[in-house]
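Encode chain A's predicted structure.
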Amino acid sequence: MAIDVNCLLGHWPFRKLYKNTLRDLQEVHAANGIQEGYVSSLNSIFYNDCFEGDEELHEMIKGSSYHHVQTIDPAMPGFSEDIDEGVRRFSSKALRIYPTFHGYSLQDPDMKLLCVKAKEHRLPLMITIRMEDERLNHIFAPSVLAMAELELFLQENPEIDVILLNIRYAELQALKETIQTRGNVYFDASGLKDQMFVVEKLLQDFDKEHLLYGSQHPLYCLKSTLLLVQLAEIDEESKKAILGDNGKTVFGGA
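Encoded structure for chain A:
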């Protein structure tokens, strides 16, 4: 069973998306052998109240096989109660944050409470490194997440599962020692388009269990990300782990 841990529904204010409905997502997944997905709200990134976007997302995916990933902005008041409410109402399966869009540091005091809540509800924390190629940021320029800041956060919070979304090969190399030391830091495939044979190179430095399949559809082309894994010159057991088994392990088969 293939699993997409990084897909989104909603609107992107910087360009028109033509395949951003649940039906679009279901069709592209079915066409590529993906049976399960963990979905975030694009709208929640830009609403003053992230929870309103998650309410919309809940209505979009309820009754489907897709799982709800809740967007959290720890710089906003009441985010802790929103997590509790999201678990109750949406059966949230993970928390996703956007520090480069929402303008806070991973060392801010509210991040400690966020980690407490993630641990309390046993939810993986998804940290979004970027949303698009920085060359497209001509209207709005998010800040850049420093790898030293991220590394310190990972070292200080070893008790929570962390998934790094849209991270690049060189950035992973900068975090290599910390990721290797911790067994519960993962990264998805959506950002691995900056080198040739990138999956093969990564598996020389990281155990295959750290890599999850994530497309970042509809901002990114799902097929190109999928082919990175499917055409990689690695053994079939590793491909099976990356495309599905690792995701089942991280999310507990939810």
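The beta strands are 2-9, 34-41, 67-71, 94-97, 125-128, 162-165, 185-188, 211-212.
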